[in-house]
Amino acid sequence: MAHKIGIIGFGKIAQDQHLPSIRKNPDFELIAVASQRGLKPDEAKHAFQDYREMLKAVPDLEAVAICTPPQVRHQIARDALLAGKSVLLEKPPAATLSELQDMKLMAQKAGKTLFTTWHAQYNKAVHEAKKALAGWEIKRLQVTWKEDVRHWHPGQQWIWEAGGFGVFDPGINALSIVSFIMPEPVFIKKADLQFPANRDAPIAADIQFSCAHGQGDLNAAFDWRQTGPQTWDIEVETANGLQLKLREGGTKLEIGGKLMVDEPSEEYEGIYACFDTLLNERTSLVDEAPFRLVADAFMIGRRVQVEAFED
């Protein structure tokens, strides 16, 4: 029997990714949507402006996908878990690590599934990269994640507010790949965060990493001001000379200059396949590593003021 699911927050990511993936997956049935703007897809039997009304009025709802901005997810997730619903969290999963830890403990007490989704991890090229790097010492890492915020987040003011993550909203995708494929933990050693004079979240960041075995040439550059072609690349070189490159957000993998994987992204299809398994097994998957790296960057990062930005 298909899992009856609801979506809370029906904005761009829910419409572009969650809804099509649920439609494709016979293991899920979308029965309810909560949207402050009153939006509703045709197949949803129930629509609400207040998610709390949805939780009360649809007793056969098994799970919810929370696709709101991160600043409000903690309370929504708590309410859903207390109502006996399992929870899928769009990334980033919350506003703070403490909120995520609270959700994790609540899910354990309630006996419900909590799933932190890092969509970039669900590409085949990313999994093959992890296999190729297993057991090796990393000599060099260069992450280049540069895109146009006006294209991907038109008019979305919450991303510029404190707690909105700024350039780390896409940057956390890169960090989710790095934390997944690296054969040992990585840490934030230094970070320069560029804040527009009129914004409370960074528009760019330069990061230097360290790893457990010692020092290496490990860096990342994030920027939200790039126009034209977008750049989502991760280059890795091991101590024994293996050179690996993930391109186009983790959909293409090159090893030694040879293209090994080139497949279209099915990230959200992978997310919902995983969620089905978790629900059936009554287990949770809470991956905190990408979120911790972002928190550490803000904790030790140097604030650099740059020119004002208007979108």
Name the shape in a single word. Answer: globular
CATH superfamily of the largest domain: Dihydrodipicolinate Reductase, domain 2
Oligomeric status? single chain
- In the residues, how many domains can be counted? 2
- How much helical structure, as a percent, in the residues? 25-40%
- Helix count equals 9
Head-to-tail CA distance between termini:
45 Å
The biggest sheet, with number of strands, parallel, antiparallel or mixed sense and barrel status, is: 9 strands, mixed
CATH class of the largest domain: Alpha Beta
List the helices and strands and how they pair.
Elements lengths: L2 E6 L3 H13 L3 E7 L11 E3 L2 H7 L5 E4 L6 H10 L3 E4 L7 H14 L3 E3 L7 H10 L4 E9 L2 H4 L15 H14 L4 E11 L7 E8 L5 E7 L7 E8 L4 E5 L4 E4 L2 E5 L4 H15 L7 H12 L1 E5 L5
Parallel strand pairs: 1-2, 1-4, 2-3, 4-5, 5-6, 7-10, 8-15
Antiparallel strand pairs: 7-11, 8-9, 9-10, 11-12, 12-13, 13-14
Helix pairs in contact: 3-4, 7-9
General description of the model:
This is D-galactose 1-dehydrogenase. This protein is α/β, with parallel strands linked by helices. The protein has 2 domains: 3-116, 3-Layer(aba) Sandwich (Rossmann fold), CATH 3.40.50.720; 120-263 and 295-306, Dihydrodipicolinate Reductase, domain 2 (2-Layer Sandwich), CATH 3.30.360. Helix content is 32%, strand content 29%. Strands 14-13-12-11-7-10-9-8-15 form a 9-stranded mixed beta sheet. A 6-stranded parallel beta sheet has the order 3-2-1-4-5-6, with helices on both faces. It is globular and about 55 Å long.
